[in-house]
Each structure stands twice: as structure tokens, then as C-alpha cells.
Amino acid sequence: MGATVALLGALGIAALLLALLAVWDDGLVAGPALLLVAYTASLVYVGAPLDRSAPLVGAGLIACVELGSWSLELRDGAEERPVRRLGSLVLLLFVALAASTVVFGMGSASTGAGLALWLVGAAAATALIVLIAMPARTDRE
Amino acid sequence: MSRKATPRLRAALWLTAVGIVASLAAGRPEPVAVAAPFALLAVAGLAERRPRPFEASLRLERERAHEGERIHGELELSSASASDRLEAVLDVAAGVVLEQEQNRALTLQPGERRTLDVALRCDHWGAQTGLHLRVRRYDRLRLVADEQDLMLDAQLRIYPHIDALRALARPFETQAAVGDQVARVKGDGIELAELRPFVPGDELRRVNWRASARTGELVVNQHHPERNTAVLLFLDTFAEVAKTSIGPLDQSVRAAAALAQRYLARRDRVGLMVVGGRVRWLRPASGAAQVHRIVDTLLEARATGSRPGDETTFAFPDRTIPPRALVLALSPLLEERIVHKLVELRGRGFDVAVVEVSPLPFLEILGEKEELALRLLRLERDLLRSRLRERGIAVVEWTEGESLETAIRTTEEFRRRARVVRS
């Protein structure tokens, strides 16, 4: 299990590096997703009760995606106001940290609605698959 | 305007889905907490409204330039919607190079007008009518990119560099108007033609007193009048063989411009016939404005593909060729229909000369027997030239790097010899 976690993490980092070095923008999608899977697998493997650093992991992944995308954008033209952009990024990280903390707090609280919450989650995941298909359809148009 | 999800939005959607699924599968809240900010981004990205279209205009300092010149202009961009990041790329056709120090993305406020300096280097002749501007706009969170292709109304005509010519292929027959060519007929002029006995009605000022004193009877001078000529420049745009902008068509256009300028400077009437996919022509006329009309028409000349064995005849406006005009063709002689047309014109009594713009330097013959193929091709072309010469058409091969002056002088030499034989 430990090797699987390490492999998933390595693949995620490799995808991120490939995205930056080979201008492969899908690497910015695959890399963080693999890192998230690796993080989940590590939680299951270790079996820790609750990882309180989860909001920081969320903010870290946001930072990966944002900085990676910014790096790719710079190839199409330098930023006119880079300081302003940097300020927006810092603000975004704080908002992400706050949102992640709130969700983590809500998720870790025991509500006693186990199956109902699971069903809500499954419905949300299904709805997301539909949402993911929407931009792809727009691309084709 | 088309819309694309940026890697940020795609990452946000995928990570949200992966987070929820992982959380459900593992029965732990951490993955969904990690994915929560991505879920917010995904919602924001999907709720982003389409922006208003962009407006752009390009003002160039002038619409006409010569090869090698630089043109400055201003590109003005505006939109009623805000853009956190705006990338604008000006698409210019071949022959023009956009000189930009560095790509720079802009930030545009709603209703704001931004002006960008544009510098264009005119490398090759041509008419640039369709300048496109590709604009990519990002929203505030840069989750979606809206792309728009704008057609700019600016036009740029780049004139070829015209070499000065001294030699010209002179038509056999002259026209009625006054010009610089000594006519073969006799009349009022400066060039002495012959002496003849005086007849009643001759002007006294024409009497050659020295000759009269020698012969003992009155003798008068006869002169050749100076007349202009009519020339039709026949440009063949069929079967361009070059893959770059430098090729037989490029050579032909430059030669046609140089010839037109030289003939018109001699007060001749010059017309133009551009024969390719469709025939474009200018009736012969004289004057400085005709040079501009001819060069403007030449700028529109485009290479036309030709299919081997294509027997479709093109609508050739024969009636636009004035009687006694010289038809001077600039052609690589690759298209059989062009060869037939030239032979037909000669058969109908027109004075025809051909400057064969050699396609051989531009041909790429692949394979092991390249040398043999080239020899065969050369033999075929020699045969074609002989066929044309037999019919009284002067054909001179003009290869790349050789001066047009030399080719024209050789043509004239051939025509002079042919005239001697004919007379």
C-alpha cells in the first residue's frame, strides 16, 4: 500500500513537471488529481483519526494549479500588472484555506446522518460528472 | 466568439469530483475538505457570463509601401466587458513581418480603449487585405477564456522593388500616336529614311540641296516618323512551382512592373493580361497613372494550381489586344493551355515574344534518377522552345539570378534576326 501511495504521488508530481516543461496543460489537471488520490490513500494506509492539515493540503493544491497555469500563460505574453495578479493569488489562497477549513469542520462534526450524507455526496459526484462534460461540449462548439 | 475552459476550471471540476468520490470511498472528510475550494472555483467558472464582443481597429500610417519599408500603426481595442488578461495576436499574411519587442497581455476595464503600437516590416510585394486579429480574454478568476477572431479593415499594398531597364523588346509595328520609336513607314520625323526625286507638292524645306547639287536635279529627304507602340504584358500565373514566395511568379511580377515602367516612360501604350485561374486584364493605355494601375493589378496576382491534362479553356479577351501590338509573355511555359494560346495569337498575326521564366531552379525532383529526370526535362523544354521559334515567336530563357536586361536584349536580338529573315 505504501508503494502505491508513493507511486501515485510520484506520478502526480511528474504530471505537474511535464505540464510546466512540455506545456501540457492537462498535466495541471491530472497532477493535482493524482496527488489528491495519493493523499486519500495515505490517510487510509496510515489510519489516522483526522488529519487537521487537510485545509493546508487544499490550499497547496490550489497554489500548484494557479502558479502552474500562470506559468503557462506567461508564454503567451507577460503580465501587465504582475503585482496585482500576485495579490489576487494570495487572496484566493486565503479564501481557499477558509473554505477548506469550514468544510473540514462540517465534515468532521458527527451529524448522525451517515447514509443520507453519503447519498448527498454520491449525487454531488454524479452532478459534477455532468458539469465536467459541459466545458468539453463548449470546446467542441 | 468561442469559449474554452482554462486548465484552472478543468482542474477545479476534476478535483471536486475526485475529492467527493475519494471521500465517499474512504469514508473520511479530508478529501472533500481539500476539494472544497476547487468546488467554489468550479461554480464560479460555470456561472461566468459571456463577455460583450470586442471592437478593434487598425490605423496604419499609410496604405501603400515599398518592399523593405516599415509601417507603423495603432491598434485600438475596446470592449464593454472587463478582461483580467487580454492577449491580442495580429495575423499578417506572408510578406509582412510583425515587429514586436515582446508579447504582452493587457488588462482591460469595461469601456476602456487601449491603443497598441504596431510596427510592420514589408518584406515582399502583395496586397494585404485581410488582416486578422485574434483576441483571447480571461475572466477575473481566469477560469474561462473567450476567443474572438476580428477582421480589421486596414489595407496595405506593398509594391515590388522595380529594377530600372534600358533594353526593351520593340514591337515590329508602331501605332498612330507620337512616341519614341522610329516607325518603319515614312512621314514627318527626324530620322532620315531615304532621298527621292522631288515631285510637285513637296515642301521646299525638305529639299536636300547638297544632294540636288550633286545629282543635278531636285532631291528631297524622306524621314521615319517617331511613333508610339502598344505592348501587352502577358503574365502567366499558372503552375507555380516554388514553395516559397520567391519563384517564377515573383520573377514575372517584378519583370512585368519593370517593363511596364520602361515602356510607359517611352510614351508607349501598355496593357496587362494576368492569366491564371481567372483572367484579369487592363486595356493598353499610356501615362504615369497606367504604371500604378498595372502594379496594382500585379499585386493581386496569385499562383494558380494546374492539373495535368486540364483542357478547360479560359475566357481570354482577345479583343482587348490592339492591332499591331506586341504581346510580351512572361511565363514558365509549364501550362499547355498557355503555350496553345501563344501559338494561336501568333497564328492570328500578333507579334509575340516570350520571356520564359525558368522554373528549373525551383523544381524539387526527388528520387535516385534526379540527374536523368532533369536532363529529360531540359530536352523537353528545348523542344518546346524550338516549336515556338519555328512559328516566329522569340523565346528566351530567363533564369533566377540572371538580369532581366540580358534576357530582353537576347529577345530583341532574336527578333532582329528573325525580321531580317522575314524581310
Instruction: Give the biggest sheet of chain B.
Output: 6 strands, mixed
Q: Output the strand order for the largest sheet of chain B.
A: 19-18-17-20-21-22
- Which pair has the most extensive contact? A-B, 64 and 53 residues
The main pleated sheet of chain A reads as: none
Broad CATH class of the largest domain in chain B? Alpha Beta
The level of helicity of chain B is 25-40%
Shape of chain B: elongated
CATH topology of the largest domain in chain B, by name, is Rossmann fold
The ordered string of helix (H) and strand (E) elements of chain B is EHHEEEEEEEEEEEEEHEEEHEEHEHEHEH
Mean pLDDT of chain B, to the nearest integer, reads 84
Radius of gyration of chain B: 33 Å
Low-confidence stretches of chain A: none
Number of helices of chain B: 8
Number of folding domains of chain B? 4
Low-confidence stretches of chain B: none
Strand content of chain B: 25-35%
Q: Report the average pLDDT across residues of chain A.
A: 84
Element-level helix/strand string of chain A: HHHHH
Which class do the helix and strand fractions of chain A yield? mainly alpha
